[in-house]
Amino acid sequence: MQKFSAFSLFRQALGAHQGWKPQWRSVKPKAAYDIIIVGGGGHGLGAAYYLAKQHGLRNIAVVERGWLAGGNTARNTTIIRSNYLFDESSSYYEHSLKLWEGLSQELNYNVMFSQRGCLMIAHTVHDVQVFKRHVYANRLNGIDNEWLTPQEVKEFCPPLNISPNIRYPILGGALQRRAGTARHDAVAWGFARAASDMGVDIIENCEVTGITRAPSGEVTGVETTLGPIKARKIGVSAAGHSSVVMGMAGIRLPLQSNPLQALVSEPVKPAFPTIVMSNTIHAYISQSDKGEMVIGAGTDGYVSYTQRGGLHIPAHTLEAITELCPMFRRLRMMRSWGGITDNTPDRSPITAKTSVPGLYVNCGWGTGGFKATPGAANLFAWTIAKDEPHPINAPFTIERFREGALIDEAAAAAVAH
Amino acid sequence: MLLIKCPYCGERAEVEFANGGEAHIARPADPMALNDEQWAQYLYMRDNPKGLIAERWRHAHGCGRFFNALRDTRTDRFVMTYEMGQPRPDITPEQAAEAAR
Ligand SMILES: Cc1cc2nc3c(=O)[nH]c(=O)nc-3n(C[C@H](O)[C@H](O)[C@H](O)COP(=O)(O)OP(=O)(O)OC[C@H]3O[C@@H](n4cnc5c(N)ncnc54)[C@H](O)[C@@H]3O)c2cc1C
Ligand SMILES: [Zn+2]
Predict the structure, then answer these.
(1) Under a CB-based contact definition with an 8 Å cutoff, are residues A282 and A320 in contact?
(2) Which of A54, A62, A95, A168 is most buried, judging by how many CB atoms fall within 10 Å of its CB?
(3) What's the pLDDT tens digit per position in A213-229?
(4) What are the recorded GO MF terms, alphabetically (chain B) (predicted)?
(5) What pTM value is reported for the model?
């Protein structure tokens, strides 16, 4: 692996940058692996990385139907935060946030994690009560989150309109200062590069079409468009396609796959210092390092695998954004797109063993799993390696829907983020 | 935006409708007789198909009535809509191919 540093950049410059090598090996699948990860998004690549790095396993393949990280990893608005309400969730998301804080160093790859804060604004008395409850719950768990008055909101983020005369006036906001954004591709590429370097095979353009099992029930491998591959363990991290892949092993999940859309504006000079989210009027916005305003729209309310969605959904979001930040009224939008998100009824994920021996699943991250990329990857790897969950992801089972132990984060996750 | 055919009012824009999830999930006749697993299946587990789905819609900003629809989730093309209470219709291979197109 070529190490990246100021010095390596300088040396490559002397050679007119002709000496850079591909960052991961391009391989054909072997006949068998110890572990196959289905899905080469950030979660799947990260799981392979941690399996190799922390659990000393090397005979691993990541199988991706398209190109590397072309799914939701490439399509999301990269908001990273850990201010979820319940103890179970906040410890999971905080585990991830802590990993983000050291990730660029760990991977020797700049994931451009920028802790510019995330401000969730309140427009109703109900919002105020809910967010304050979040602030207190988070602080009891040692997670930073603080309440800002409208004036403090304005000082922290001057483009916001705090006039009491707008349709949904700003009554205050909850600010997590350690929250931020990261470069979506870089996370996947960084994990891929480091995993490949430790011997993990990354196989692109190879769709899993079946899961094969022994008469006794345990998994024996996968069928793919490049032929069968044997495996002792299979970890499925297929985001919007989780129901489809798990269905190949006869497992039904509590998931609905919905389109979620986002859009970006033309690039402008630095104008927006933080991330602003509003659950009530459904809008969120931040500025990328390239200068584009990155705007997340709402979920299209029906099952679909089209990665499209209707134009009225982003239009609604833009109405909200331009009322909150009137200076964006003349900004032109450049691109919009959709991804397929896998949503659970309680808006919390599943990272767990399944009833099929040797089959593991990490899914249900829905509209908010980018922030969990290193954390979920790390705990999914643990669960696969040890055949049991880590205490942090132990509550995030499929069985919780049978036992009634739901982790209802609808209030934290109501806005798709 | 989808164009949806309400069986009562005709074709209208999607913004008039609310999606009601998977169709034909019957409320258990004798809830007390169900075990936890059956309850979980009824309440939470869903087919979530990539392909044909039978789903409920409500013409929320119109006649207010529920109806069912067959749609291909790979293309969002509707095969047909039909009234509540009717069984899931059989469709021809040509209809399925048209919806998948
Ligand atoms: C518009 C939008 C905005 C979002 N904004 C945020 C945000 O601000 N913050 C946040 O935390 N989260 C956000 N999310 C959610 C986040 O993107 C996802 O939860 C997260 O990326 C899922 O991680 P992943 O890496 O597993 O997904 P993916 O990158 O989708 O990886 C899954 C992979 O599995 C592959 N796959 C599927 N089926 C098969 C098969 N049969 N064989 C082989 N491979 C297969 C897919 O091709 C895909 O590459 C957003 C999502 C969208 C769509
Ligand atoms: Zn009608």
Answers:
(1) yes
(2) A62
(3) 999 999 999 999 999 99
(4) sarcosine oxidase activity
(5) 0.97
Both tokens assigned to A391: 């205490």
Q: How far is B44 from chain A (nearest CA, A)?
A: 5
Q: Of A313, A316, A322, give the one whose Cα is nearest residue A293.
A: A322
Give the list of residues 6+ apart from residue A269 with CB closer than 8 angstroms, or none: A291
Is A349 in contact with A395 (CB distance < 8 Å)? no
With contacts defined as CB-CB under 8 Å, which chain B residues touch A304? 73, 76
Name the stretches of chain A with pLDDT < 50.
none
Mutate which: B44, B61, B75, vs A, most A CBs within 10 A: B44
CA A366 to ligand 1 center in whole angstroms: 8
Q: Please state the ipTM of this predicted complex.
A: 0.96
From A307, which residue of chain B is nearest by alpha-carbon distance? Answer: B74
CB A82 within 8 A of CB A136: no
Superfamily per CATH, domain B20-25+42-101: Folate-binding superfamily (3.30.2270.10)
Confidence (pLDDT) at A355: 97
Query: A40 to chain B, minimum CA–CA distance in Å?
Result: 20
Given a cut of 50, the residues of chain B with pLDDT beneath it are: none
